[in-house]
Amino acid sequence: MFAAALWGHGFRPFFLGAAVLAVLLIPWWAGAFAWGVPLGTAWPPVLWHGHEMLFGFVGAAIAGFLLTAVPSWTGARGFAGWPLLTLAALWALGRIAVASSVLWPFAAVAALDLAFLPALAVLVMPPLLRARNRNTPLLAVLAALWATNGVFYWGLARGDAALSRHALLVGIDVVLLLVTIIGGRIVPAFTAAALRARGDATALKVWRPLTPLAVGAMLAVIAVDVVRPEGTAAGVAAAVASLVQAVRLAQWRGTAARRMPIVWVLHVGYLWLPVGFALKAVALLGAPAIGGFYLHALTIGALAMMIVAVMTRAALGHTGRELIAARSIAVAYGLLAAAAAVRVFGPLVRAIPYGDVILGTAALWTAAFALFLWVYAPILLSPRADGKPG
């Protein structure tokens, strides 16, 4: 029964896989940093950490989202059975290969890992093209993310750690563009729906030109980071993106949803976008000590929190359950937000050793995802509550 349910819909194996990877990788990384726990790779440890969080953890979450959203967008049948199992196996084999890459030829590890995103695109492309769906350009986002992974491996092959790090920075920007596009749709839509259900009929007043402005600002961030990362132009682009994202978020009445965790977590996650870009601007335009850890505001804060927000909501909705976050999941939201805050601002507190910041962040992160698995693993492994397929 569990196996049948797991392969019944695209979100199930990938949301589960993302959470399991989150619980495994961060303690491993923290142990390696603090106590010298050995890694199964000859890669520079920081690059291993960044790569697996981006292309392993975030990659699984993107796959789960797209495999669930594309059938809803296009009216096509959901992705299930052996195609889903094959894709999940490819993702898992990539993670195993990277985690033990010291044992395998470099080219084999790269080829296996680089196969995942094209395989995902092969699954979701036909229904998008047949329906001429407005979300078809998201395939270009997948292609751009795949290209950054390719450049990452090229840098490793050349012994150019700076190039690989640059590829990760641009890859993060690409995923933040996806958050901007999708988050800009779901955060106001889900907030308005929740407020209406509560009897609050006040409409969200959204200034529509902010959507292309936000997307344009993110494209500018990507373009500048490709050609001139960490310079003055990158700081200016980040400042503009921060301002536009902050104004955009302010329209969505997040404070009105403060008693609904499954809604407010979306706002908290999106809030880390303007915060992260503001810190990036500060760091690049003259105050690196204050904004030096902006990248974790954008990754733990914006990416991880938005991923958890979407996973918790989608898993309930697509298994026929009521859209109410369990109390333990609300605690998980808070733990993850705390992890972001500790990682970004903890180093500014001189009394706290940097190693303790890493360990504290890892503990908060791991607790958050352990709670997610405690609540959601049974949901993801069980048939729909309403008896419907999927």
Describe the structure.
This protein is mainly α and 390 residues long. The protein has a single domain, classed as Up-down Bundle (Cytochrome C Oxidase, Chain A), CATH 1.20.210.10. It is built from 15 helices and no strands. α3 (45-74) runs parallel beside α13. It is globular and about 50 Å long. The two termini are 13 Å apart. The relative contact order is 0.11.
Summarize the structure.
This protein has helices spanning 2-6, 11-35, 45-74, 82-99, 106-114, 116-131, 138-158, 161-197, 210-227, 232-250, 261-284, 288-291, 294-317, 327-345, 354-380.
Instruction: Bin the helical content.
Output: over 70%
* N-end to C-end Cα span: 13 Å
Number of strands: 0
Radius of gyration: 20 Å
Tell me the layout of helices and strands:
Elements: H1 2-6, H2 11-35, H3 45-74, H4 82-99, H5 106-114, H6 116-131, H7 138-158, H8 161-197, H9 210-227, H10 232-250, H11 261-284, H12 288-291, H13 294-317, H14 327-345, H15 354-380
Helix pairs in contact: 2-3, 2-15, 3-4, 3-6, 3-8, 3-13, 4-5, 4-6, 6-7, 7-8, 8-9, 8-11, 8-13, 9-10, 10-11, 11-13, 11-14, 13-14, 13-15, 14-15
Features:
mainly alpha, 15 helices, Cytochrome C Oxidase, Chain A, single chain, 390 residues
